[in-house]
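User: Hi! Is it possible to get a structure for several chains at once, not just one? Here's what I have:
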Amino acid sequence: AQSVTQLDSHVSVSEGTPVLLRCNYSSSYSPSLFWYVQHPNKGLQLLLKYTSAATLVKGINGFEAEFKKSETSFHLTKPSAHMSDAAEYFCVVTGSGGYQKVTFGTGTKLQVIP
Amino acid sequence: DSGVTQTPKHLITATGQRVTLRCSPRSGDLSVYWYQQSLDQGLQFLIQYYNGEERAKGNILERFSAQQFPDLHSELNLSSLELGDSALYFCARSCMLTEAFFGQGTRLTVV
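Assistant: Yes, the chains can be modeled jointly so their relative placement is included. Here is the combined structure:
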């Protein structure tokens, strides 16, 4: 069985300050982990992915995430928030079966205050 | 741009009706996955097809069905629609097990 928990449903930061979106997972397999972003009325865009290579993963738009097996976490960070980062972010875990065993988190809405 | 095209972008229909949502492939994509995103249920996996055959089923209602055609495009058929079926429906395509590319979604509103 696998699951993913996004610890915050809403996060609010000021422009130019760091962003931290938290994700914890559980998986019976060696998981692949992803972060997707969804802007209002848009589809899902892949930000970054971890697939058992380097534990610190760099993604698009300055985002990065660190896979910590001991903490079963895959938190998403960005040093400095931009207004365009306001969106909903989904943490996703897949097992060895590929995407048919994909589990989405419930999402974190990021608000960026000017 | 994910290269995955979903049509229509928006659909408004009445309860009891039937609709068909379409997902068009990127070149080389053999797999297609359908997801439903609703306010109360979040993102849910519905069904996967691979090269024309059903590969996995998630939380898909019996009123819903899908197909993948020889040209690899896929259709999701929703029948006897209910108000609760109002949602954003995504398809995702992948030619690798470690990544998927999502379409922009079809927003279905049942009135």
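The CA atoms of residues 90 and 101 of chain B lie 10 Å apart. DSSP finds no helices and eleven strands in chain B.

User: Great, thank you!
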